[in-house]
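Pipeline run #58 for the internal structure catalog. This entry was flagged by the ingest filter as a single-chain record with no existing model, so it goes straight to prediction. Upstream metadata was stripped on purpose; only the residue string is passed forward. Reviewer on rotation: M.T. Logging verbosity set to normal.
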Amino acid sequence: MAARARVTSHRDAFHPRLTNPEPIVRRAPAFGKDDSHIETDLIVIPTDDRHAWDGMIFRPRHGAIDPRLAVLVIHGSVGHYLSGMPRRLAFHLAQRGYAALTANTRMANYGVFFGTGLIDRAQLDIAAAVRALRERGFRRIILLGYSMGSTMVTHYQAVHAPPEVIGVCTIAHPLSLPQALRRRWERFGSIPSYNEMCAIVTRQMEGRDDPDRDRIIIVRRATGPSDRPEDAEIWTYRTWWHSRGPEALSAESRRWVGLLRVPLALIQAGADPLISQAEGSLLATLARDGGCPAAHLEYVDGANHTFDGHELDAVNAAVRWVTRLARDAQRAGRSPPVVRSRTPGRPSTN
């Protein structure tokens, strides 16, 4: 695809012989010039609990730097495998010579709205994506998560530690999803409040994780101070309890980073209204104190949580770290055995 805008004529759909005198100006795609350097493969990823999620593999067209290495990219809240940050990451990784699989999980799109988005079970989705890469011949895998995806890949690696995974890279990594949501709800005066939500869910579910008792609930003033829909959040009792409730242990990265036994990167936004710089520092400290072999912490100055206007800064920081890790792994000749089971801008010094 050409990166340059192109003018074409247009025929009326109902009158094929009539030509519209007004030419259509096609907007140049944001990644148009990248297409000639990469190739993509749309795949379906089956899970052990009989779900199936979409994914796309991005590869450098003219050969990879390390043909046995791939980066698995996991989306954030209400995101998906081709939304902003995952898409940018996959494109740029492929441009730099690395294969990347960007994959959906049960937390993608509207999973939390309709009851299927249970974060503690997303480890089955990540395991399925790792298996998909393994089946395609990749023997070294780097997990890369954005926002909530950071929490998911950290939890997965801490619990399962598959031998193919050589590192975990995270972007806008929260210390605790429940804590971050509670702080935001208190800031805007949510209706219901966090404590009220706990009471509602406990009462309605009667202490049981029963899908038949699950219902949709709307929280007003959850992301802003008004009653407009744009400031509201939609949950179900179960999806909220599993990922933001007081017992959502899998959503607490502060509990898991110290269990990592592969290098960790934390690419944080320098002006994030949702995640303070202190959270990144604490995650790095907890990782090192727990025995993580290396914890790299870097801030993108002036960036908010979605890195508006700083997207490439975040992507480039992640790609630099991936490049260093891949180079070190290749030099060390680290290549785990084939596993055939279906088991589910300010760098710090390391």
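catalog note: The longest strand covers residues 38-46.
catalog note: Residues 311-332 form the longest helix (22 residues).
status: ready for reviewer M.T.
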